[in-house]
From TrEMBL:
<protein>
    <recommendedName>
        <fullName>Cro/Cl family transcriptional regulator</fullName>
    </recommendedName>
</protein>
<dbReference type="Pfam" id="PF14549">
    <property type="entry name" value="P22_Cro"/>
</dbReference>
<dbReference type="InterPro" id="IPR010982">
    <property type="entry name" value="Lambda_DNA-bd_dom_sf"/>
</dbReference>
Length: 57
């Protein structure tokens, strides 16, 4: 997954940060590439609507 997919699901970088319990500036520092461990966390939080390790279609 990339940041665009995550924003589409959650609505904003701030909402991604809130879901992960981290500061929004940390999400901004990722650029387009979400760290792998965070991808897996987002997969769990999104109940598998987002998939870790998959490239955007």
């Amino acid at each position: 997954m990339n940041i665009t997919e995550a924003i589409s699901h959650f609505g904003s970088k701030k909402k991604i940060a809130d879901a992960l319990g981290i500061h929004p500036s940390a999400v901004t520092q990722w650029g387009d590439s979400i760290p792998e461990a965070r991808q897996y966390q987002l997969q769990v939080i999104s109940k598998n609507k987002l998939k870790a390790g998959q490239k955007a279609a």
